[in-house]
Write a structure and sequence with these properties.
By secondary structure, this protein is of the alpha+beta class. 25% of the residues lie in helices and 20% in strands. The longest helix has 20 residues, at 198-217. The two termini are 34 Å apart. The model has no long low-confidence stretch (mean pLDDT 92). The chain binds a DNA duplex through loops.
Length: 282
DNA sequence: CCAGCCCCCTGTCGGC
DNA sequence: TGCCGACAGGGGGCTG
């Protein structure tokens, strides 16, 4: 479940082993792992186009990894179970049976994309905006202040949890950090997004940024599949207040954490710290 | 505009 | 122990 902190950690971990390397060829064993683009509509075009291009910079936008090459961008989305790492050519392939895409690099190393559930993808593009859907503001950007959050809320009337998961509302927040942010802000996940008062908006703004910043500092949450590029686990899961803690005591008040479904996602909250709204519609 | 559902996939786990 | 259904959830798409 790589979200903003996990993707950011992967990006940071890839810079040293990847920047300066030149691509030679690619390999894949699952067609849908490679998303077609105008400049690389199939694996043969992809291979011909990437060959000879050097990795110059790596950045994150929302949950996308953007590897800037000389002319193009290698875009990767990890979705649920994706892993991306650089490894020596001769590293035992069987050690990771879910590798579906590799880029052969110079220097005897490979960039490998592993994805057990095959939801993720790689793509070679010269226009990221055409590849990705409309993405909302980066929540950790200096420009994402309370007013930016309030502006995003305007015109919406749906459960706040569902809105937090909407990448057009705010980019990079997923199920884990949405639950953690709402608990920190003491807001029930089913609260109508247009019912938040000024104090709650301010608290939610701070909570989102705190959850994501802490997540990055802890190098992401390794609940099951996520790993850093060096293969080790993140530590953010050790600090969850509500996510994956159904039935366990709230760290604030001791009440058992409850789990419901909101927007088709498992949603965890404290019924005392985050009181149930009396009106969901009205 | 929004809630709900399906789909893409496969590993894991609880129940029988 | 083995089988089976439920569940995990990022994101696109469709329907009511």
């Amino acid at each position: 479940m790589p979200e903003l902190p996990e993707v950011e950690t992967v990006v940071r971990g890839l810079r040293t082993p990847l920047i300066g390397r030149t691509a030679r060829d690619i390999w894949h064993d699952w067609a849908r792992t490679i998303r077609p683009t105008p400049i690389a509509p199939d694996p043969a075009h992809f291979a011909a186009r990437i060959a000879g291009q050097t990795f110059r910079a790596i950045e994150r936008r929302a949950k996308y990894i953007l590897c800037h090459l000389d002319d193009d961008i290698l875009v990767v989305h990890l979705k649920m179970t994706g892993r991306l790492y650089v490894t020596p050519d001769d590293a035992i392939h069987d050690a990771d049976r879910w590798v579906h895409f590799r880029v052969q690099l110079d220097g005897g190393v490979q960039l490998r994309f592993s994805d057990a559930r095959k939801f993720g993808f790689v793509a070679l593009t010269d226009d990221f905006s055409r590849l990705a859907p409309a993405l909302g503001p980066e929540p950790l950007a200096d420009t994402y202040n309370i007013e930016a959050l309030r502006a995003g809320l305007h015109g919406h009337r749906k459960a706040i949890k569902a809105l937090l998961l909407d990448q057009a509302f705010v980019a990079g927040v997923g199920n884990i950090y949405a639950d953690e942010s709402l608990h920190d802000a003491k807001i029930h996940p089913l609260r109508a997004s247009d019912s938040l008062n000024d104090d709650e908006i301010a608290h939610l703004h701070a909570a989102i940024r705190r959850a994501l910043t802490d997540g990055i500092e802890r190098e992401g949450a390794s609940v099951n599949w996520y790993r850093k590029p060096d293969g080790t686990s993140g530590k953010a899961q050790q600090y969850f207040h509500v996510y994956d803690r159904a039935g366990e005591p709230c760290l604030t008040c001791g009440t058992p954490i409850e789990k419901i479904r909101v927007a088709q996602r498992g949603t965890h909250y404290c019924p005392v710290c985050q009181p149930t709204p009396t009106l969901l519609k009205g």
